[in-house]
Amino acid sequence: MKSIVRCAGTVAAICLGAAVGTSSMALAETVFNRGNGGEPSTLDPHNTDGRIESNIFRDLFEGLVVYGPDGRFMPGVAETWEVSPDGLVYTFRLRANAKWSNGDPLTAEDFVYSFRRAVAPHSGASAANLRMIEGADAVMAGGPTDKLGVKAVDPATVRIALVTPTPFFLGVLSSDNMALPVHRATVEKNGDKWTEPGKMVSNGAYTLADWQRGKPLVAVRNVNYYAKDSVSIDRVIFHPVADPGEELTLYRAGKLDITNEVPQDQVKWISLSQPKEFWNKPFLATYYYALNLTAEPFKGNRNLRKALSLAINREQIVEKVTRAGEMPAYGLVPPIVPNYRRPLPAFAAEPMEQRLEEARRLFADAGYGPSQPLKLEVLYNTSENNRVIAEAVMAHWSRAFGKGLAVTSVSVDRTEYLKRRARRDFQVVRAAWIGDFADPTVFLNLMLSTALPPRNDPGYRSAKYDELLAKAASSTEVSERSALLADAERIMTDEYPVIPIYHWATKSLVSQKVKGWVFNIRDVHPSRFVSIVEAKVPAGGNKTSAAN
């Protein structure tokens, strides 16, 4: 008799691979179907810091320190650590049973190699969050990687030296993809193909089983993971569904256990009809539009940039469009970041009509009007939620400037969107940033002169801004540091390289059978801390599955 494996909520084509012919009944796999908001651009943790990819990396890889289910950091590969009295040296002792998925021991040299690789100049994401490590700036500028202050004291001990005391350093290690280890032999043998199924060697609770572009990514339990006995879920399936409406349909059909988000126009109905499944809390993220300062019409035209910012009614957008508890944004740093007082522009307290009057004056001063209209294009990655926000923003601009503005939008898939951002092929681009940890620099470092897209999308350059962030980095006094960072944000926002629109709130659906899904301000949920508990079937009842 063939065994039958029931994969509750699993796409049939994937579930078929779980059934294996045996002479006796096999236990059913526990499968977790995650809506992940889109297609990952890469599976190399040192080449991206996107949210979609990071959700996957948290399952496939593990750093020295990790975030637990409640968002607090806890031991990862490092079982213990010590900090020197001056706060400049961190010494991590690795677990004796830490291994790679192929069974190789995980050693201190693996972390030395990985940190050097992450910080060295390459075409991927920026390692700006690691700038506090001794020698990092020099290595990022093209200097020798052996000058980086990450050393292997012995096979089980990693020592990291910093240039200045950094109280949030463990938060950086817990969250930044650049702090994740990669398997040197696999990378060097396979080059860019090391992330393919069958080639990837990782060290997280799960290993890569299958990934084809446009199809769900499948991860399975890592039998060599040091804490494998505490991992409840056997198989995690990340569904690359960019459209919240499609996600909602799959969720209702039982094919997703969680959604990445829900459609804006259904937030109210979902909150009332499914209050036990709707997760709606503020979290560490800001949604904004970036203006290309390296080309016309925004290059050297602050009046125009300010006019467009003033004309957006942020309060109306969060009340009428997003409708999920978001807050209007006038800067990059979200209000839930502790020990920081956000600087707000004077116009934030003004009524909308007064803002519009000033916006029209600045627009005319910038040289635009009905006789010389401004032609503008807004770029965003394909998503119903991005579309409705773009339509709201464009409606506000049309109301403010009438025939003086001809604005259109263009929607492209995420891969093309990232390519266009990388080469600054846009006038206005939709952007968002989710904080790796709760510190203002996570957001303010985006606008450093040395940062590249998808961080500094506008191409903003300010020596004073860079100087203030550098001073803040060397300050050990909380209030002084906070004041320096606030001054920097005030200088940057007053130049209008970006137009902050709102600070995010989570708006996802989580099935009641998903246990261990705990709210935290970063909205991170590694699958190793989650379990699936199916509803009990009454005696004589029938239990069905979405895929049998």
Automatic annotation (TrEMBL):
Entry-linked InterPro entries: Peptide/Ni-bd (IPR030678), SBP_5 (IPR039424), SBP_5_dom (IPR000914)
Tagged with keyword Transport: yes
GO BP of this protein: peptide transport
A GO CC annotation given for this chain: outer membrane-bounded periplasmic space
Cellular compartments annotated: Periplasm
Family: Belongs to the bacterial solute-binding protein 5 family.
Name of the protein described by the UniProt record: Peptide ABC transporter substrate-binding protein
Organism whose genome encodes this protein: Azospirillum cavernae
